UniProtKB/TrEMBL annotation:
Binding site for Mg(2+): N271, D284
Source organism, top-level taxon: Eukaryota
Cellular localization per UniProt: Membrane
Catalytic site: D266
CDD domains in alphabetical order: STKc_IRAK
Protein name: non-specific serine/threonine protein kinase
Gene responsible for this protein: 11420055
Origin species: Medicago truncatula (Barrel medic)
Binding site for ATP: K168
Length: 457
């Protein structure tokens, strides 16, 4: 009885073990199948999608896909996408690699031409193609010429969006590399001030170099001072002082608001543009020179306009911002008198504006200095203030010339130099010239007027 019970229990145990073994085997088979299916699926995906690489090494797959955005010039700047495929048997040499390219933002190197179409947006402004500039100026039509100087001809232009610009076609740029030109243009383009003409872009193709400026609608100061304006000048005394102050503020920003500072080197009436509200804008940075903060002067080839150039710059070539101050003093005389700095049509004693101006002040004939075309002359008080500023700007002692920031303060102050606390202008060793004594403006010798910090930023 007991043996039969033992046998039946043993057979039951064996049956249970077999069932468990079968279940375990089924689970293992299922797991293996799942792993196989996953692996097979991943292989299919790899076959369907080629691998991309950007390391510049040998391709990981047999085909290299290069997306090239092409500008379709015949379809109003619509962009198409072209796919180039290199087969396994193709030899990928340097020339072929050069043809595999990715165009970003419109930049593309031509096939063998070496020309580069640039991204129009360059941060501070815009790059213009030669075709765009030619269309804007109607092929540089002579009727669109609005000015001409030693560095180029200026054309009025209208861009495709209707924006009116002034295009300066630069001369003598054969030796200037495109890279060097772009660096200089970028330095100019980032300068922003309401009294400086804004550079909105440039064009550099082949040997052509052009600057695209904002268009200032009222011409330049020279036209209004020396042109045919009738018996009465539209430039009243107040308007002339507004122009002088705006010019001084623009130069103050160049001298004191930038690092490195900028010396203009060609301050003259034709480089002062006027908008419809008679606001002055200093133009033509073609002659500007960047100065490092550690430098007090730069020795360079003398550049500028005869009559405006300071004596020390003309004789030695030593240039710093005080050279601009002298030129501004001559410009201020021109604004007051309506006379050109050098006029050979006048009598010998009046050909040179600076010499004639000093002689008139010295002989106490200051009232005769005012432009006769000004309908309402200034008050004696206002005239004396501006005459003093002129004399200080053209002082032969460079150190005694005021800074442009100080000049702005003097021009804007109605009380200068008549209040006692404002009569602290000269250095302690200053000795008044004969011209200064004649307009009876006292000085204190033991105090120097502090330089006004630029607030133009």
């Amino acid at each position: 009885m007991s043996e039969s019970t033992t046998t039946s229990s043993t057979s039951l145990m064996s049956f249970k073990v077999l069932i468990l073994a079968g279940i375990f085997l089924i689970i293992v088979i299922i797991i293996v199948l799942l792993i196989y299916l996953c692996f097979r699926g991943s292989r299919k995906k790899r076959k369907m999608l080629p691998k991309l690489h950007s390391s510049g090494s040998t391709p990981l797959v047999s085909k290299e896909i290069s997306m090239v955005k092409e500008i379709d010039l015949t379809r109003s700047s619509e962009k198409q996408t072209r796919i180039e495929i290199i087969e396994d048997h193709d030899e990928v040499g340097p020339k072929k690699e050069a043809e595999i390219m990715v165009e970003i933002g419109g930049v593309r190197k031509g096939d063998g031409g070496g020309h580069m179409m640039e991204d129009p947006n360059i941060g501070w402004g815009r790059w213009y193609s030669l075709k765009e500039v030619e269309m804007a100026t109607r092929g540089f039509e002579e009727g669109n010429v609005i000015g001409e100087g030693g560095y180029g001809v200026v054309y009025r232009g209208v861009l495709q969006d209707g924006c009116v610009v002034a295009v300066k076609n630069l001369h003598n740029n054969k030796g200037q590399a495109e890279k060097e030109f772009k660096v200089e243009v970028e330095a100019i383009g980032k300068v922003r001030h309401k009294n400086l003409v804004r550079l909105v872009g440039y064009c550099a193709e082949g040997a052509r170099r052009m600057l695209v400026y904002e268009y200032v609608e009222n011409g330049n100061l020279e036209q209004w001072l020396h042109g045919n304006v009738g018996p009465t000048s539209p430039l009243t005394w107040d308007i002339r002082m507004k122009i002088a102050i705006g010019t001084a503020k623009g130069l103050t920003y160049l001298h004191e608001g930038l690092e490195p500072k900028v010396v203009h080197r060609d301050i003259k009436s034709s480089n002062i543009l006027l908008d419809k509200n008679w606001n002055a804008k200093v133009s033509d940075f073609g002659l500007a020179k960047l100065l490092g903060s550690e430098k007090t002067h730069v020795t360079t080839r003398v550049m500028g306009t005869f009559g405006y150039v300071s004596p020390e710059y003309a004789s030695t070539g030593m240039l710093n911002e005080r050279s601009d101050v002298y030129s501004f003093g001559v410009l201020l005389m021109e604004i007051i008198t309506g006379r050109s700095p050098i006029d050979y049509s006048r009598p010998p004693g009046e050909m040179n504006l600076v010499d004639w101006f000093k002689a008139m002040v010295s002989s106490r004939r200051s009232d005769e200095l005012v432009d006769p075309l000004i309908e309402t002359p200034p008050s004696p008080r206002a005239l004396k203030r501006v005459l003093l500023i002129c004399l200080r700007c053209i002082d032969l002692d460079v150190i005694k010339r005021p800074k442009m920031g100080q000049i702005v303060h003097m021009l804007e102050s109605d009380d200068f130099p008549f209040r006692s606390e404002l009569r602290t202008i000269r250095d302690k060793d200053y000795v008044p010239s004969q011209a200064d004594v004649s307009i009876k403006v006292p000085y204190q010798r033991k105090h120097t007027e502090p330089a006004e910090k630029s607030t133009c930023r």
